[in-house]
Amino acid sequence: MKKIKALPAVLLALCLLISGCGNASSSLPEGESETDGTEEPAAVSASPSTDETEGEEDMTADVIEEAKELTLSEQAEAIRNELWAAYCEKERADETRISEDKKNAISMDGVTMKYGIKTVGKADENGLYPLYIALHGGGSDETGRINDDQWRQMASYYLGGVKNGVYVNPRAVRDTWDCHSNPESYPIYDRLIENMILFRNVDPNRVYILGFSAGGDGVYQITPRMTDRFAAANMSAGHPNGVKLESLYNMPLQLQVGINDSAYNRNKVTAEYDYLLEKLGKKYGGGYIHKTNIHIGHAHNFADYDDAKHEIVDDVSAFFRNKDYGTTKEVTSALRFLDQYVRDPLPDTVVWNLGVRASMRRTDSFFWLSAPKTVSSGIVTARADREANSVTIETDKVSDRSLSVLLSARMFDFTKPVTIVLDGESREVTPEIRREVMEETLAERGDPEWIFEDKIDLSSLFGEN
Protein backbone atom coordinates (compact mmCIF):
# COMPACT_ATOMS: atom_id res chain seq x y z
CA MET A 1 0.00 0.00 0.00
CA LYS A 2 1.19 3.53 -0.76
CA LYS A 3 2.87 5.34 2.12
CA ILE A 4 2.79 9.06 2.83
CA LYS A 5 4.49 11.39 5.24
CA ALA A 6 2.94 11.39 8.70
CA LEU A 7 1.27 14.54 9.97
CA PRO A 8 2.31 16.14 13.28
CA ALA A 9 -1.09 15.12 14.64
CA VAL A 10 -0.16 11.51 14.07
CA LEU A 11 2.90 11.84 16.27
CA LEU A 12 0.74 13.32 19.02
CA ALA A 13 -1.72 10.49 18.58
CA LEU A 14 0.94 7.87 19.02
CA CYS A 15 2.17 9.58 22.18
CA LEU A 16 -1.40 9.66 23.47
CA LEU A 17 -1.71 5.97 22.77
CA ILE A 18 1.40 5.28 24.80
CA SER A 19 0.03 7.30 27.72
CA GLY A 20 -3.18 5.22 27.58
CA CYS A 21 -5.51 8.21 28.00
CA GLY A 22 -7.98 7.00 25.39
CA ASN A 23 -10.05 4.88 27.79
CA ALA A 24 -12.10 5.58 30.89
CA SER A 25 -10.86 4.39 34.23
CA SER A 26 -11.69 0.73 34.67
CA SER A 27 -12.01 1.03 38.45
CA LEU A 28 -15.70 0.22 38.55
CA PRO A 29 -16.69 -2.16 41.35
CA GLU A 30 -16.69 -5.87 40.84
CA GLY A 31 -19.77 -7.84 41.78
CA GLU A 32 -22.93 -5.74 41.96
CA SER A 33 -23.19 -2.05 42.78
CA GLU A 34 -25.92 0.53 42.68
CA THR A 35 -25.69 4.24 41.97
CA ASP A 36 -28.34 6.23 43.79
CA GLY A 37 -27.15 9.74 42.98
CA THR A 38 -24.66 10.03 45.85
CA GLU A 39 -21.85 8.04 44.30
CA GLU A 40 -19.19 10.02 42.44
CA PRO A 41 -18.46 8.99 38.83
CA ALA A 42 -15.44 6.81 38.19
CA ALA A 43 -12.25 8.85 38.36
CA VAL A 44 -10.51 9.63 35.11
CA SER A 45 -6.83 10.51 34.92
CA ALA A 46 -6.38 13.82 33.13
CA SER A 47 -2.62 13.52 32.71
CA PRO A 48 0.15 10.98 33.29
CA SER A 49 2.27 11.03 36.44
CA THR A 50 5.77 12.50 36.47
CA ASP A 51 7.31 9.04 36.24
CA GLU A 52 5.05 8.17 33.32
CA THR A 53 5.98 11.44 31.57
CA GLU A 54 9.68 10.74 31.93
CA GLY A 55 9.14 7.29 30.49
CA GLU A 56 7.28 8.72 27.54
CA GLU A 57 10.08 11.23 26.85
CA ASP A 58 12.54 8.35 26.70
CA MET A 59 10.34 6.68 24.09
CA THR A 60 9.57 9.79 22.02
CA ALA A 61 12.56 9.49 19.71
CA ASP A 62 11.68 5.90 18.87
CA VAL A 63 8.02 6.84 18.32
CA ILE A 64 8.91 9.69 15.96
CA GLU A 65 11.27 7.46 14.00
CA GLU A 66 8.59 4.79 13.61
CA ALA A 67 5.97 7.38 12.65
CA LYS A 68 7.95 9.03 9.87
CA GLU A 69 6.09 7.02 7.29
CA LEU A 70 2.61 5.59 7.83
CA THR A 71 0.13 4.06 5.48
CA LEU A 72 -3.06 6.02 5.00
CA SER A 73 -5.02 3.54 7.09
CA GLU A 74 -2.43 3.73 9.88
CA GLN A 75 -2.50 7.52 9.74
CA ALA A 76 -6.30 7.52 9.94
CA GLU A 77 -6.23 5.16 12.91
CA ALA A 78 -3.73 7.33 14.75
CA ILE A 79 -5.79 10.47 14.21
CA ARG A 80 -8.96 8.64 15.31
CA ASN A 81 -7.25 7.61 18.53
CA GLU A 82 -5.97 11.12 19.10
CA LEU A 83 -9.40 12.67 18.54
CA TRP A 84 -11.15 10.11 20.73
CA ALA A 85 -8.70 10.69 23.60
CA ALA A 86 -9.16 14.46 23.34
CA TYR A 87 -12.95 14.08 23.13
CA CYS A 88 -13.05 11.89 26.24
CA GLU A 89 -10.87 14.28 28.21
CA LYS A 90 -13.05 17.24 27.24
CA GLU A 91 -16.45 15.59 27.76
CA ARG A 92 -15.51 13.90 31.04
CA ALA A 93 -14.69 17.35 32.39
CA ASP A 94 -18.00 18.80 31.22
CA GLU A 95 -19.94 19.95 34.30
CA THR A 96 -23.33 19.14 32.77
CA ARG A 97 -22.33 15.58 31.93
CA ILE A 98 -20.75 15.10 35.36
CA SER A 99 -23.96 16.29 37.01
CA GLU A 100 -26.09 14.01 34.84
CA ASP A 101 -24.00 11.00 35.76
CA LYS A 102 -23.98 11.88 39.46
CA LYS A 103 -27.73 12.60 39.72
CA ASN A 104 -28.90 9.81 37.38
CA ALA A 105 -31.01 12.31 35.45
CA ILE A 106 -30.75 14.00 32.05
CA SER A 107 -32.70 17.14 31.18
CA MET A 108 -33.11 18.28 27.59
CA ASP A 109 -35.73 20.25 25.67
CA GLY A 110 -37.83 20.92 28.75
CA VAL A 111 -38.15 17.34 30.01
CA THR A 112 -36.14 15.21 32.43
CA MET A 113 -35.41 11.50 32.23
CA LYS A 114 -34.46 9.94 35.55
CA TYR A 115 -32.90 6.50 35.62
CA GLY A 116 -31.71 3.83 37.99
CA ILE A 117 -28.36 2.18 37.38
CA LYS A 118 -26.58 -0.93 38.63
CA THR A 119 -23.29 -2.47 37.60
CA VAL A 120 -23.12 -6.27 37.77
CA GLY A 121 -20.12 -8.57 37.50
CA LYS A 122 -16.72 -7.93 36.00
CA ALA A 123 -15.72 -5.97 32.92
CA ASP A 124 -14.39 -7.87 29.91
CA GLU A 125 -10.73 -8.21 28.97
CA ASN A 126 -10.82 -4.67 27.53
CA GLY A 127 -12.28 -3.19 30.71
CA LEU A 128 -15.69 -2.69 29.11
CA TYR A 129 -19.27 -3.65 30.00
CA PRO A 130 -22.39 -4.26 27.93
CA LEU A 131 -25.24 -1.81 28.55
CA TYR A 132 -28.85 -2.94 29.04
CA ILE A 133 -31.54 -0.25 28.78
CA ALA A 134 -34.74 -1.65 30.33
CA LEU A 135 -38.04 0.15 29.71
CA HIS A 136 -40.89 -0.11 32.23
CA GLY A 137 -44.59 -0.79 31.70
CA GLY A 138 -47.47 1.55 32.41
CA GLY A 139 -48.32 4.14 29.79
CA SER A 140 -51.21 6.59 29.94
CA ASP A 141 -51.41 7.61 33.59
CA GLU A 142 -52.96 10.85 34.86
CA THR A 143 -51.24 10.78 38.25
CA GLY A 144 -47.97 9.14 37.22
CA ARG A 145 -48.22 6.69 40.11
CA ILE A 146 -48.59 3.63 37.90
CA ASN A 147 -45.55 4.58 35.85
CA ASP A 148 -43.57 5.30 39.02
CA ASP A 149 -44.49 1.87 40.38
CA GLN A 150 -43.63 0.15 37.10
CA TRP A 151 -40.34 2.05 36.96
CA ARG A 152 -39.42 0.79 40.42
CA GLN A 153 -40.29 -2.77 39.38
CA MET A 154 -38.11 -2.51 36.28
CA ALA A 155 -35.14 -1.71 38.52
CA SER A 156 -34.99 -5.44 39.25
CA TYR A 157 -37.21 -7.12 36.64
CA TYR A 158 -34.50 -8.07 34.13
CA LEU A 159 -31.57 -7.48 36.47
CA GLY A 160 -31.32 -11.09 37.59
CA GLY A 161 -30.57 -12.14 34.03
CA VAL A 162 -27.56 -9.83 33.72
CA LYS A 163 -24.35 -11.84 34.07
CA ASN A 164 -22.13 -8.81 33.76
CA GLY A 165 -22.99 -5.34 32.57
CA VAL A 166 -24.46 -1.94 33.31
CA TYR A 167 -28.23 -2.13 33.84
CA VAL A 168 -30.13 1.14 33.37
CA ASN A 169 -33.89 1.57 33.84
CA PRO A 170 -35.10 4.99 32.61
CA ARG A 171 -38.28 6.66 33.88
CA ALA A 172 -40.44 7.78 30.95
CA VAL A 173 -40.40 11.55 30.49
CA ARG A 174 -44.21 11.78 30.26
CA ASP A 175 -47.18 9.70 31.43
CA THR A 176 -48.66 9.17 27.98
CA TRP A 177 -49.49 5.95 26.14
CA ASP A 178 -46.28 6.43 24.16
CA CYS A 179 -44.36 7.31 27.31
CA HIS A 180 -40.99 5.97 26.10
CA SER A 181 -41.13 7.41 22.60
CA ASN A 182 -42.07 11.04 23.13
CA PRO A 183 -40.09 13.17 20.63
CA GLU A 184 -37.93 14.62 23.41
CA SER A 185 -36.93 11.13 24.56
CA TYR A 186 -34.73 10.33 21.57
CA PRO A 187 -31.93 12.87 22.09
CA ILE A 188 -31.90 11.85 25.76
CA TYR A 189 -31.35 8.19 24.83
CA ASP A 190 -28.43 9.32 22.68
CA ARG A 191 -27.05 11.37 25.55
CA LEU A 192 -27.54 8.49 28.00
CA ILE A 193 -25.57 6.12 25.78
CA GLU A 194 -22.82 8.71 25.29
CA ASN A 195 -22.54 9.21 29.06
CA MET A 196 -22.44 5.48 29.71
CA ILE A 197 -19.54 5.17 27.25
CA LEU A 198 -17.71 8.08 28.87
CA PHE A 199 -18.30 7.40 32.57
CA ARG A 200 -19.33 3.75 32.93
CA ASN A 201 -16.90 1.99 30.60
CA VAL A 202 -19.67 0.78 28.30
CA ASP A 203 -18.80 -0.93 25.03
CA PRO A 204 -20.59 1.03 22.26
CA ASN A 205 -20.93 -2.19 20.28
CA ARG A 206 -22.84 -3.95 23.08
CA VAL A 207 -25.72 -1.62 23.83
CA TYR A 208 -29.07 -3.41 24.18
CA ILE A 209 -32.64 -2.25 24.71
CA LEU A 210 -35.52 -4.28 26.12
CA GLY A 211 -38.94 -3.55 27.53
CA PHE A 212 -42.21 -5.03 28.76
CA SER A 213 -45.78 -3.85 28.00
CA ALA A 214 -45.52 -0.07 27.49
CA GLY A 215 -41.78 -0.73 27.47
CA GLY A 216 -42.38 -3.13 24.60
CA ASP A 217 -44.28 -0.36 22.81
CA GLY A 218 -41.18 1.77 23.30
CA VAL A 219 -38.85 -0.86 21.88
CA TYR A 220 -41.02 -1.07 18.75
CA GLN A 221 -40.85 2.71 18.25
CA ILE A 222 -37.28 3.41 19.32
CA THR A 223 -35.40 0.69 17.47
CA PRO A 224 -36.33 1.66 13.88
CA ARG A 225 -35.36 5.27 14.67
CA MET A 226 -32.11 4.45 16.47
CA THR A 227 -31.19 1.09 14.96
CA ASP A 228 -27.52 1.90 14.63
CA ARG A 229 -27.15 2.44 18.38
CA PHE A 230 -28.17 -1.09 19.40
CA ALA A 231 -26.59 -4.51 19.07
CA ALA A 232 -29.99 -6.21 19.57
CA ALA A 233 -33.38 -5.67 21.21
CA ASN A 234 -36.14 -7.58 22.99
CA MET A 235 -39.80 -6.54 22.80
CA SER A 236 -42.20 -8.17 25.26
CA ALA A 237 -46.00 -7.71 25.48
CA GLY A 238 -46.07 -4.51 23.47
CA HIS A 239 -47.87 -3.22 20.39
CA PRO A 240 -46.14 -1.79 17.28
CA ASN A 241 -48.86 0.72 16.41
CA GLY A 242 -48.08 0.30 12.72
CA VAL A 243 -44.39 1.19 12.84
CA LYS A 244 -42.30 0.25 9.78
CA LEU A 245 -39.26 -1.96 10.34
CA GLU A 246 -37.16 -1.60 7.16
CA SER A 247 -34.34 0.10 9.08
CA LEU A 248 -33.82 -2.99 11.29
CA TYR A 249 -31.71 -4.81 8.67
CA ASN A 250 -28.69 -4.92 10.99
CA MET A 251 -30.35 -5.24 14.41
CA PRO A 252 -31.57 -8.62 15.73
CA LEU A 253 -34.98 -8.42 17.41
CA GLN A 254 -36.80 -10.85 19.69
CA LEU A 255 -40.59 -10.52 19.97
CA GLN A 256 -42.54 -12.07 22.85
CA VAL A 257 -46.25 -12.21 23.70
CA GLY A 258 -48.73 -14.33 25.63
CA ILE A 259 -50.94 -16.47 23.39
CA ASN A 260 -54.02 -15.18 25.23
CA ASP A 261 -53.00 -11.51 25.17
CA SER A 262 -55.86 -10.39 22.95
CA ALA A 263 -56.01 -6.78 24.19
CA TYR A 264 -55.34 -4.55 21.19
CA ASN A 265 -54.89 -7.86 19.31
CA ARG A 266 -51.33 -8.04 20.65
CA ASN A 267 -51.02 -11.80 20.18
CA LYS A 268 -51.90 -11.76 16.48
CA VAL A 269 -50.05 -8.51 15.76
CA THR A 270 -46.87 -9.95 17.24
CA ALA A 271 -47.17 -12.94 14.90
CA GLU A 272 -47.88 -10.55 12.04
CA TYR A 273 -44.65 -8.65 12.73
CA ASP A 274 -42.75 -11.93 12.73
CA TYR A 275 -44.18 -12.47 9.25
CA LEU A 276 -43.24 -8.92 8.18
CA LEU A 277 -39.65 -9.43 9.29
CA GLU A 278 -39.53 -12.66 7.28
CA LYS A 279 -40.76 -10.76 4.21
CA LEU A 280 -38.20 -7.99 4.68
CA GLY A 281 -35.38 -10.53 4.89
CA LYS A 282 -36.44 -12.01 1.56
CA LYS A 283 -36.93 -8.61 -0.06
CA TYR A 284 -33.52 -7.24 0.91
CA GLY A 285 -31.60 -10.49 0.63
CA GLY A 286 -30.67 -11.09 4.26
CA GLY A 287 -30.62 -9.28 7.55
CA TYR A 288 -33.61 -8.92 9.90
CA ILE A 289 -32.50 -11.60 12.34
CA HIS A 290 -35.44 -12.25 14.64
CA LYS A 291 -37.06 -14.74 16.97
CA THR A 292 -40.68 -14.77 18.15
CA ASN A 293 -41.88 -16.48 21.33
CA ILE A 294 -45.64 -16.90 21.80
CA HIS A 295 -46.10 -18.14 25.36
CA ILE A 296 -48.63 -20.95 25.86
CA GLY A 297 -51.16 -20.49 28.66
CA HIS A 298 -50.36 -16.83 29.29
CA ALA A 299 -52.03 -13.53 28.58
CA HIS A 300 -50.20 -10.25 29.24
CA ASN A 301 -47.66 -11.58 31.74
CA PHE A 302 -45.13 -14.36 31.17
CA ALA A 303 -41.54 -15.22 32.08
CA ASP A 304 -39.04 -13.53 29.78
CA TYR A 305 -36.44 -12.83 32.46
CA ASP A 306 -35.07 -16.20 33.61
CA ASP A 307 -33.02 -18.99 32.05
CA ALA A 308 -35.68 -21.69 32.44
CA LYS A 309 -37.38 -23.31 29.47
CA HIS A 310 -40.96 -22.23 28.84
CA GLU A 311 -43.66 -23.60 26.57
CA ILE A 312 -44.14 -21.62 23.37
CA VAL A 313 -45.74 -22.03 19.94
CA ASP A 314 -43.45 -24.06 17.67
CA ASP A 315 -44.70 -22.55 14.39
CA VAL A 316 -45.44 -18.83 14.56
CA SER A 317 -46.39 -18.72 10.89
CA ALA A 318 -49.06 -21.39 11.42
CA PHE A 319 -50.41 -19.48 14.43
CA PHE A 320 -50.57 -16.30 12.36
CA ARG A 321 -52.43 -18.08 9.53
CA ASN A 322 -54.81 -19.81 11.98
CA LYS A 323 -53.38 -23.21 11.05
CA ASP A 324 -52.56 -26.13 13.34
CA TYR A 325 -49.38 -25.75 15.37
CA GLY A 326 -47.59 -27.60 18.13
CA THR A 327 -45.63 -26.46 21.15
CA THR A 328 -42.04 -26.68 22.30
CA LYS A 329 -40.06 -25.70 25.37
CA GLU A 330 -37.25 -23.19 24.96
CA VAL A 331 -35.31 -20.64 26.97
CA THR A 332 -37.14 -17.35 26.43
CA SER A 333 -34.83 -15.09 28.40
CA ALA A 334 -34.58 -11.62 26.89
CA LEU A 335 -31.00 -11.35 28.15
CA ARG A 336 -29.79 -14.62 26.65
CA PHE A 337 -31.10 -13.54 23.24
CA LEU A 338 -29.41 -10.15 23.46
CA ASP A 339 -26.07 -11.48 24.65
CA GLN A 340 -25.58 -13.42 21.42
CA TYR A 341 -25.06 -10.26 19.39
CA VAL A 342 -22.45 -7.54 18.98
CA ARG A 343 -23.11 -4.48 16.85
CA ASP A 344 -21.26 -4.08 13.56
CA PRO A 345 -20.91 -0.29 13.35
CA LEU A 346 -19.78 -0.42 9.71
CA PRO A 347 -22.00 -3.05 8.06
CA ASP A 348 -21.75 -3.75 4.34
CA THR A 349 -25.50 -3.25 3.86
CA VAL A 350 -27.65 -0.46 5.25
CA VAL A 351 -31.42 -0.10 4.73
CA TRP A 352 -32.80 3.23 5.92
CA ASN A 353 -36.48 4.17 5.96
CA LEU A 354 -36.27 7.97 5.96
CA GLY A 355 -39.94 8.20 6.90
CA VAL A 356 -39.21 6.64 10.30
CA ARG A 357 -36.93 9.15 12.00
CA ALA A 358 -36.81 10.94 15.34
CA SER A 359 -37.18 14.63 14.55
CA MET A 360 -35.51 15.94 17.72
CA ARG A 361 -32.33 13.86 17.59
CA ARG A 362 -29.14 15.90 17.16
CA THR A 363 -27.78 13.53 14.55
CA ASP A 364 -28.70 13.26 10.88
CA SER A 365 -26.61 10.13 10.35
CA PHE A 366 -27.45 6.44 10.23
CA PHE A 367 -24.52 4.02 10.22
CA TRP A 368 -22.38 5.39 7.31
CA LEU A 369 -25.13 7.37 5.61
CA SER A 370 -26.37 10.87 6.37
CA ALA A 371 -29.35 12.96 5.30
CA PRO A 372 -30.88 16.16 6.68
CA LYS A 373 -34.23 15.69 8.39
CA THR A 374 -35.88 17.54 5.51
CA VAL A 375 -35.45 14.26 3.62
CA SER A 376 -38.34 12.58 5.39
CA SER A 377 -39.70 9.94 3.03
CA GLY A 378 -38.55 6.98 0.98
CA ILE A 379 -36.14 4.13 1.54
CA VAL A 380 -32.41 4.06 0.85
CA THR A 381 -30.58 0.76 0.35
CA ALA A 382 -26.79 1.08 0.39
CA ARG A 383 -24.29 -1.72 -0.14
CA ALA A 384 -20.53 -1.46 0.24
CA ASP A 385 -18.18 -3.74 -1.69
CA ARG A 386 -14.88 -3.49 0.13
CA GLU A 387 -12.90 -5.51 -2.41
CA ALA A 388 -14.19 -3.42 -5.31
CA ASN A 389 -13.83 -0.19 -3.30
CA SER A 390 -17.37 0.78 -4.23
CA VAL A 391 -20.76 1.76 -2.83
CA THR A 392 -24.05 1.07 -4.59
CA ILE A 393 -27.09 3.05 -3.48
CA GLU A 394 -30.68 2.55 -4.55
CA THR A 395 -33.44 4.96 -3.57
CA ASP A 396 -37.16 4.27 -3.51
CA LYS A 397 -39.46 7.30 -3.42
CA VAL A 398 -36.81 9.46 -1.73
CA SER A 399 -37.78 13.12 -2.04
CA ASP A 400 -34.36 14.42 -3.12
CA ARG A 401 -30.67 13.51 -3.30
CA SER A 402 -29.59 15.42 -0.22
CA LEU A 403 -27.77 12.32 0.96
CA SER A 404 -24.16 11.82 1.98
CA VAL A 405 -21.91 8.80 2.22
CA LEU A 406 -19.54 8.75 5.19
CA LEU A 407 -16.31 7.07 4.14
CA SER A 408 -14.14 5.17 6.59
CA ALA A 409 -10.58 4.03 5.99
CA ARG A 410 -11.60 0.85 7.82
CA MET A 411 -14.01 0.06 4.98
CA PHE A 412 -12.27 1.40 1.89
CA ASP A 413 -8.77 1.74 0.46
CA PHE A 414 -8.09 5.48 0.49
CA THR A 415 -5.12 5.10 -1.90
CA LYS A 416 -7.56 4.29 -4.70
CA PRO A 417 -10.69 5.96 -6.10
CA VAL A 418 -13.99 4.92 -4.57
CA THR A 419 -16.79 4.23 -7.04
CA ILE A 420 -20.24 5.40 -5.98
CA VAL A 421 -23.28 4.19 -7.92
CA LEU A 422 -26.55 6.01 -7.28
CA ASP A 423 -29.66 4.60 -8.94
CA GLY A 424 -27.58 3.27 -11.82
CA GLU A 425 -25.39 6.36 -12.31
CA SER A 426 -21.70 5.92 -11.52
CA ARG A 427 -19.10 8.40 -10.30
CA GLU A 428 -15.59 8.09 -8.92
CA VAL A 429 -14.30 10.08 -5.96
CA THR A 430 -10.83 10.40 -4.50
CA PRO A 431 -11.17 9.91 -0.75
CA GLU A 432 -9.16 12.06 1.62
CA ILE A 433 -8.38 12.04 5.30
CA ARG A 434 -10.15 15.23 6.34
CA ARG A 435 -9.61 16.12 9.96
CA GLU A 436 -12.63 18.45 10.04
CA VAL A 437 -14.90 15.60 8.95
CA MET A 438 -13.43 13.33 11.60
CA GLU A 439 -14.04 15.94 14.29
CA GLU A 440 -17.56 16.64 13.04
CA THR A 441 -18.63 12.99 12.87
CA LEU A 442 -17.22 12.25 16.33
CA ALA A 443 -18.99 15.23 17.89
CA GLU A 444 -22.26 14.29 16.17
CA ARG A 445 -22.71 10.90 17.83
CA GLY A 446 -20.01 10.63 20.49
CA ASP A 447 -19.12 7.13 19.34
CA PRO A 448 -15.49 6.12 18.65
CA GLU A 449 -16.68 3.70 15.97
CA TRP A 450 -18.13 6.54 13.91
CA ILE A 451 -15.16 8.79 13.30
CA PHE A 452 -15.27 9.04 9.51
CA GLU A 453 -12.40 10.36 7.40
CA ASP A 454 -14.42 11.74 4.49
CA LYS A 455 -17.97 12.75 3.59
CA ILE A 456 -19.30 12.67 0.04
CA ASP A 457 -22.33 14.84 -0.76
CA LEU A 458 -24.33 12.95 -3.36
CA SER A 459 -26.34 15.97 -4.49
CA SER A 460 -23.08 17.71 -5.43
CA LEU A 461 -21.64 14.57 -6.99
CA PHE A 462 -24.69 13.60 -9.06
CA GLY A 463 -26.83 16.73 -9.14
CA GLU A 464 -30.00 17.33 -7.17
CA ASN A 465 -32.43 15.58 -9.51
SSE layout:
Elements: E1 3-5, H1 8-19, E2 32-35, H2 50-66, E3 69-71, H3 72-92, H4 95-103, E4 105-108, E5 111-120, E6 129-135, H5 145-157, E7 165-170, H6 185-199, E8 202-212, H7 214-225, E9 232-236, E10 253-258, H8 266-283, E11 290-295, E12 309-313, H9 316-320, E13 327-331, H10 334-338, E14 349-353, E15 365-366, E16 369-370, E17 379-385, E18 390-396, E19 404-407, E20 418-422, E21 425-429, H11 435-445, E22 454-457, H12 458-462
Parallel strand pairs: 6-7, 6-8, 8-9, 9-10, 10-11, 18-20
Antiparallel strand pairs: 1-3, 2-5, 4-5, 5-7, 12-13, 14-17, 15-16, 16-19, 17-18, 19-22, 20-21
Helix pairs in contact: 1-2, 1-3, 3-11
Structural account:
The strands form five sheets. Strands 2, 4, 5, 6, 7, 8, 9, 10 and 11 form a nine-stranded mixed β-sheet that branches. Helix content is 31%, strand content 25%. The chain has helices at residues 8-19, 50-66, 72-92, 95-103, 145-157, 185-199, 214-225, 266-283, 316-320, 334-338, 435-445, 458-462, and strands spanning 3-5, 32-35, 69-71, 105-108, 111-120, 129-135, 165-170, 202-212, 232-236, 253-258, 290-295, 309-313, 327-331, 349-353, 365-366, 369-370, 379-385, 390-396, 404-407, 418-422, 425-429, 454-457. The model is unreliable at 1-33 and 35-50 (pLDDT under 50). The protein is built from twelve helices and 22 strands. It folds into three domains: 3-93, no CATH class; 97-338, Alpha/Beta hydrolase fold, catalytic domain (Rossmann fold), CATH 3.40.50.1820; 349-462, no CATH class. The longest helix has 21 residues, at 72-92. It is of the alpha/beta class.
